[in-house]
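User: I'm curious what two different proteins look like when written out as structure tokens. Can you demonstrate?

Assistant: Sure. I'll show them one after the other, since each token string lines up with its own sequence. Here's the first protein:
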Amino acid sequence: MLLMEDVRSYGFASTPGMEVGCIQAFVQDSLEPEEKAAEAAIGFARDQLRENFLGYARCFASIDRTYTDFIAPYFNNLARNLYLEDSATHKTQYLTEVPIS
């Protein structure tokens, strides 16, 4: 559950799949607290308990999809790129052997 109180939390809540359990802590465009935020949070928690947190399935799917589509390929490519191959000689060297210029 996220009580949204600043721009970062609004950005998080605007990310598809991550909006589950995001509750406004302040009245929009003011610094006045949202009087029903606590009530909304408690209601949300009760609903999720009753539903075995099924509402978070989209959130978890979004995290898994991000891992599969972006994180895993990045680290796989990073591992491959730790070796540098000269295209003419096909000589391979470690990244740490490359002189820093």
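Here's a second, unrelated protein for contrast:
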Amino acid sequence: MQAIRTYFIKYFLSFLLIYLALLGSSHLPPIRKNLKDFARTKTGQVLNTTLPKAIFIADPQRLNLEESSSLITLAYANRAALDAQRKQQQVVAMDFQVLNYELDQIYLTGLFFFLALVLVTPISWQRKIIGILIGGALLFLINTFVISVLALEKVADSKIGIYDLSAGSLKIVTFLGNLFNNAIVFVVPVFVWAIVCFKRGDLKLLFPTSK
């Protein structure tokens, strides 16, 4: 019982304090604004790369769109239709659709969870830094997949002439979007942490009495 209490204080409480500190600091207005601007810009860049038939505008004020503090808001349209309209110099307003992402769920919570796990892991600082770099890259790739799937579902469902999916395909995309949208918060960070921070025999660092 004493050993369990020691592990609880040494690891879980430390993890909880770091995680809550990261999460709390992300809600400070200046930090929140910078995080939102960075996430929105990167999201626009990613989606314009992974879904090139659509054009994503990562500046809600450009189209007079309101954005809440908890959301990342982008506008999108059929890229070919917009280009054709520009070439013909038509003054007709383009019908942009709106796409929203939860800032905390998609971008911050999982990242902070991962960082807190790495920081309390009893390995050298060199391994921690390497783990954060590699893990951060893995989380970025997974995040790219998730936001692309969610965007594909939204674009396909909006019927704007691109990425038209059959009913069956749309159900699969919706299922994957919902699955990873939930898993990216806690499940994915734990797997990434285990991959980048542990080698064979490292269990003894957490539980010295284990054989």
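A detail about the second structure: DSSP finds eight helices and three strands in the chain.
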